[in-house]
From TrEMBL:
The keyword Phosphoprotein does not apply. GO terms for molecular function: acyltransferase activity, transferring groups other than amino-acyl groups. Residues 387-406 are annotated as: Disordered. The chain crosses the membrane at residues 48-68, 89-109, 143-161, 168-186, 192-209, 216-231, 237-255, 262-285, 291-309, 316-335, 355-376. It comes from the Bacteria. GO terms for cellular component: membrane. This is Acyltransferase. Keywords: Acyltransferase, Membrane, Transferase, Transmembrane, Transmembrane helix. Residues 19-374 form the Acyltransferase domain. It holds the Pfam family Acyl_transf_3. InterPro entries: Acyl_transf_3_dom (IPR002656), Acyltransferase_3 (IPR050879). GO terms for biological process: polysaccharide biosynthetic process. The keyword Membrane applies.
Length: 406
């Protein structure tokens, strides 16, 4: 999990660990699992008055928006932040990629994945969706927007303007509405954006971690992320709306700390809700106004409820699910594909057979996710922390570190 920084709420209470965020991650992860599994295992239980999967994803994005800037600001060290991010995200991500490629001898790779260098480049940078490249495992598309958010937050931190979260949330909401009105496809087509972005990403990441040309790299990567988000995404309005949601999460963090108001949160939410209404790319059932707005309200309400109850004891099962949520998120879809291939077609089973398969799937998924957390995620995160501590204890090199703004 993300190393949760010390926080102070409006009553002045010190919170050592924000367990409610872990609980929200657990809820979000299981909602996404349900979205993918129910059509195969229990189709009659899948709701269509809101999108379970998008609900879970929006909860995740609100959590990231709330905690990631706080993590960077509390560290005050861009190099340590990115070292932590690399060791947090990549080990399990690369393991799942390797597993999917090995299993490709049995279950073919998704047809949406290009069979050329652009696919390799897009997966290396994690910028898959914003360079219009299909992922080896379907849920990986959300990591694109996590990465864009990290890059933008780093650039804002470098420029000392990271406190303007509410303004940014509204700005991305406006971009989402405008992009929906005028853009129907990426304006940067072809495989070259994935390759160029990967080269710049790797070079810039090296600068951020080592400290060489760090400020220039932060600005360059932030600009690249912004350009790709608007002009390289599969669905430009959707990418901008996601960033509006994430900066809304940051604005809520500012409000909780007493450094911002709730007005920008309301304005950004209204813009995100309106974004697909007149959009050219809005033909899917889950972005129809009633479904989309209901999903947004439920996700926002869940996050708000978590904030209201943040001082109370969180059920252990939810914090445990939050602990393994990244593993659950990345592992569940390939596992479902392999289960379906093994069974022939899960939808052809009897109701009893599907119920047994659903129970078995959950048991295997949660067990496997715990194992990957225990033996992949946790050791990698511990290694990242050790490296960060060693870097922090080394004598600073003049002119290399971004000072903590304000």
């Amino acid at each position: 999990m993300i190393a949760t920084p010390q926080a102070t709420d409006r009553s002045g209470t010190k919170v050592a660990r924000l367990a409610w965020l872990d609980a929200l991650r657990g809820i979000g992860a299981m909602a996404v699992v349900a979205e993918h599994a129910l059509p195969w295992l229990m189709p009659s239980l899948r709701p269509y008055w809101f999108s379970l999967g998008m609900y879970g994803v929006l909860v995740f994005f609100l959590v990231s928006g709330y905690i990631i800037p706080a993590s960077l600001e509390n560290r005050g060290d861009v190099g340590a932040f990115w070292t932590s991010r690399v060791f947090r995200l990549y080990p399990l991500y690369l393991l799942v990629i390797a597993a999917v490629l090995v299993m490709a001898f049995w279950v073919p790779v998704r047809p949406q994945v290009p069979r050329d260098l652009s696919a390799v480049a897009a997966h290396m940078s994690m910028l898959l969706d914003v360079v219009h490249t299909g992922a080896l495992a379907d849920p990986m598309w959300t990591l694109s927007y996590e990465m864009v958010f990290y890059l933008l937050v780093t650039a804002l931190f470098a420029g000392g303007v990271h406190q303007r979260s509410g303004t940014l949330a509204i700005a991305f909401g406006v971009v989402a509405v405008a992009a929906g009105l005028v853009l129907s496809a990426p304006l940067l087509p072809g495989p070259w954006p994935a390759v160029a972005a990967c080269v710049l990403f790797l070079a810039g990441l090296a600068c951020l971690i080592t400290g060489r040309f760090r400020t220039v790299a932060a600005y360059a990567l932030g600009l690249m992320a912004l350009v790709l988000l608007v002009f390289g995404s599969f669905v430009p309005w959707f990418g901008a709306a996601i960033l509006a949601v994430m900066f809304t999460g940051t604005a809520l963090y500012r409000w909780e700390r007493g450094t911002g108001g709730l007005g920008p949160v309301v304005a950004a939410a209204a813009l995100v809700a309106a974004a697909p209404v007149w959009s050219i790319q809005a033909g899917w059932w889950w972005v129809q106004p009633d479904v989309w707005i209901t999903t947004i309200v439920l996700a926002g309400g869940t996050f708000a409820l978590g904030m209201v109850l943040r001082g109370r004891r969180v059920p252990g099962v939810l914090t445990w699910l939050g602990l393994i949520s990244y593993s659950v998120y990345l592992v569940h879809h390939p596992l479902l594909k392999y289960l379906n291939a093994l069974a022939g077609d899960l939808r052809s089973l009897t109701p009893t057979g599907r119920a047994v398969a659903a129970l078995g799937y959950l048991v295997v998924l949660l067990t496997l996710s715990w194992l990957t957390y225990r033996f992949v995620e946790a050791p990698a995160q511990a290694l990242g922390r050790r490296i960060s501590r060693r870097r922090s204890s080394s004598p600073p090199q003049a002119g290399r570190d971004i000072p903590v703004p304000g």
